[in-house]
Write a structure and sequence with these properties.
By secondary structure, the protein is α+β, with helices and mostly antiparallel strands. It has one domain. The chain contains 2 helices and 2 strands, in the order ααββ.
Length: 63
């Protein structure tokens, strides 16, 4: 994990209802990483990432 990922992680939204959820924290780090690296994110959990503006998300179950 580099400084750019940590910076973007701090800017990504996290709902207060999920703040204590470890999975939500992992999603934020994944979202920050793909945003920094400008990569698409292929996941079945599209709703976990839909509020992250700089993250391009595709549902892998639709392929």
């Amino acid at each position: 994990m580099d400084a750019a990922v940590l910076t973007v992680r701090g800017e990504l939204p996290a709902g207060n209802d999920r703040a204590a959820d470890v999975r939500a924290l992992h999603d934020i780090y994944v979202g920050a990483t793909v945003a920094v690296e400008r990569l698409p994110l292929l996941t079945a959990n599209v709703d976990h990432f839909e509020r992250m503006d700089d993250v391009s998300v595709a549902n892998w179950t639709s392929f």
